[in-house]
Amino acid sequence: MILTGGVQYFRMITVVLLLTGITGAAPVEEWNRTYNVGRIYDVQETQDEGYILAAGDALVKTDAYGTEQWIRKFNRPELASREFIQVFKIEQSSDGGYILAGSKSFYGDYGAKDVAFVIKTDAYGNEQWSKTFDENIEKFYPVRGEAKSVQQTSDSGYILAESLGLDSSGYVRVIKFYSVGKIEWIKNFEKTCGEGSSVLQTPDGGYLLATCNVYKNNTGNYYNTVDALLIKLDAKGNELWNRTFGENNMIGSIQLTSDGYILAGVTDSYDSYDAWLIKTDLNGDVAWSRTFGETNSDDGFHSVQKTQDGGYILAGYTGADRTSDLIRYNSGDAWLVKVDANGNKQWDIILRGKFLHSARQTRDGGYILVGYDVPLFYGSNVWLVKVSGEPEGAAMPKKTPAFEASLFFITLISVYIKGLWRGK
Length: 424
What we know:
Methylamine Dehydrogenase, Chain H, 2 domains
């Protein structure tokens, strides 16, 4: 019995030693804040090293420690009972102001109508110009219109992707604005996803649209299966090429890299949905593809951002209940994943009972996270969390002479104890 206990104790020490020597240390929390706002979908570090939050119907500006400096709401008090606003995307513009995109829900006698909007503000969140895209309400009723992607372009204008339709049926519009808010051009892309599309400017002055294909069967109904789709556009929005990636997958986020694009989302692995990361060159051809997750567990990524070491930080979920909708996930735990430049996982953090919308690396090498507790109660558990950057070299094991000597020593003791055990 004494020997058995000794073996168990030794095994425990061995595990501790091995974890100390091999496992990379994940970041630790520096501070957290909660706010009396709706769901926070996006965050960006600002020019003054504070943060700007896309939060419900408002913008929230904080200092470097998450302390609220000001808040600007965009709802109309006279329509408070019939109008719901959600800001999805926020970006600071070159003039120090902000460009934001989202969706407005109007509740009338026949149900809800969702329409996309874009708003430009000054540095203090005061509206300078805005546009609501409600001209197609009657074509798609009950309609779902939303804008989850907006970016300032190299000519100081703006590019926006508007998704319009019913669930996964509908079309996407890419809209180019002049800097003063006047529309320069609009391009429609039919038989594409009715929600969740994004667009970014490419180095050649053109654009890349990330969306998905949808298909109709012989009766004219849409299949549940969708294919992730990239469409390359020239500077005027004309299609140059397109690429699809497998079956039954969706792109949740896309970023430009030095030699192509990085895409993150979710893919169907037959027994469950897996988190999905794919790297392409500038022509949309696949360089590599990675999946993450456990068997019989639905996992996915909401966002991907480049990190200072050439890798990527991914925000998503893990352990969700299987659902037929690839992007309307309401269960599971928040999941923060760090990978290297080739998509190999370096570390991850699971936040039980949380929902993580977005994660970005900060100038100091740490990470800023936004999300909420599950279930969500308005204003009670919407949070912003700052975590430290990982220690230098922590993500990869270092085989130092001392470490290798310790492994050799552990092996000798293990063999000796096994001999004692067999000879008892």
